[in-house]
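Input C-alpha cells:
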C-alpha cells in the first residue's frame, strides 16, 4: 500500500497531473490552478532533487514549485505573458526527465 501511495505522489501520475493542472491554469488565466500545481509538485521535485543533497542540478530541480508559484503570482496580477514565461522551466525540466527515463530504458 505504501508503494502505491509513494508512486502516486512521487511518480509519473503526480508529474502528469501537475502538467495538466498548470496548463489548465495558464489557458484559463486562473492563478488558483497554478498554485495547486505548485503544491502538487513539491513532493516529486524534492524527491527528484536528491534532497538534502545540495549539488547544482538538485538545487535547480527543487525550485520547480517556485517557478509555478511565480507564474501564479504573475497571473493574479494580470501579466499573462510573464506567467507563461515563468512556467517554461517547469515544462522543460519535466521534458528533460522524460528523455532521461526513455534513454535509460525505464518506464
Amino acid at each position: 500500500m505504501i508503494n502505491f501511495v509513494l508512486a502516486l505522489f512521487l511518480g509519473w501520475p503526480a508529474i502528469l497531473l501537475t502538467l495538466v493542472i498548470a496548463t489548465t491554469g495558464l489557458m484559463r488565466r486562473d492563478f488558483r490552478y497554478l498554485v495547486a500545481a505548485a503544491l502538487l509538485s513539491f513532493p516529486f521535485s524534492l524527491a527528484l532533487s536528491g534532497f538534502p543533497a545540495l549539488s547544482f542540478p538538485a538545487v535547480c530541480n527543487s525550485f520547480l514549485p517556485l517557478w509555478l508559484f511565480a507564474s501564479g503570482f504573475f497571473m493574479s496580477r494580470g501579466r499573462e505573458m510573464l506567467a507563461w514565461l515563468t512556467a517554461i522551466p517547469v515544462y522543460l525540466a519535466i521534458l528533460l526527465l522524460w528523455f532521461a527515463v526513455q534513454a535509460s530504458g525505464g518506464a
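The radius of gyration is 14 Å. Helices lie at 2-10, 12-28, 31-49, 56-62, 64-76, 80-104.
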